[in-house]
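Hello,

I think I submitted the zinc ion job twice by accident. Can you confirm which output corresponds to this input? Input:
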Amino acid sequence: MRTVAFGSLAAFGVAGIVALAPLSAQSPSGTVDSHVAAARTAAGQDHIGLFNRLCQPEPARPAASAATAPTAAPPRPPGPPAKATWEADAVKVFDNLYFVGEKEYSAWAVATSDGIIILDTIFEYSVDSQIVGGLKKLGLDPSTIKYALVSHGHRDHSGGAQYLQDSFKTRVMLSAADWDMLEKNTRDPSKPKRDLVVTDGQVLTLGGQQLTFYITPGHTMGTVSTLVPVFDRGTRHVAAAWGGTAFNFPHSKERFQIYIDSARRFSDIAVKAGADVLIANHTIFDGSKTKLPAMATRKPGDPHPYVIGTDSVRRYLKVAEECAVAAMMRLP
Ligand SMILES: [Zn+2]
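Support: Only one job matched these inputs. Its output is below.
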């Protein structure tokens, strides 16, 4: 096994010059409704899950109290949720890309001739069952997990990273901003030890495969989005992974503008790269709830459910952008 020392960061090159999109100074034109309508049009039939999640106005949150919330669900017992609520089958999706996530949260494995790269590590309670167990079921060796890219420092993606560090000496990668955010977080039961820092445009090369990372702030201030070449029965495609999707951040016009600018920029990058596959880190967003089962019954010559075409990848990011514009315009 090749020793991966910190010096191997030389293995990263900068993929050309990536210009930062200028921040839009002026307020967006149109109305909330016109931007929701633009998002609905962009969603078409294929991205309706994303549209429904992002474009609905957030419900008012009533102040919770025992007296006013008699129908509130009983509190969940301490400890991890029952396995039956999150366990999912591992699935080979491309020649070199495997789903090793849970029912709701995705983790992906890129298999190369020199080891495995994991994209998002799910929770500390599910990483062993789903990522380690899933790789074994698929005939892959988890001891060869060389890198784990954590798209952003929220527990549903970072919780399993420390386990990979401890078990397999996996090198864990986050942006500087999200390493900082994780370090300040005292709630999560498991956090990776600070390791490799992802920078914008970085290329990770392993076993002849190259993943490219982009810092796309918005969902968190250091969210990383990724381009991954994938192969379907030998035919090359490019998968785009939008690293953070929901608007569960402190709401301000400035923050939404950052999200919007990142969505526009990553859309341009993905389209220029010819990305024709979209993978998400929540199964609700990329259609994985139907596409993963569909992989099992795919016949020779059938289209690949994840190969959606570059225009559909563009429309996906347009939904994120337009729903963010609408949400920003709803702010007082
Ligand atoms: Zn998140």
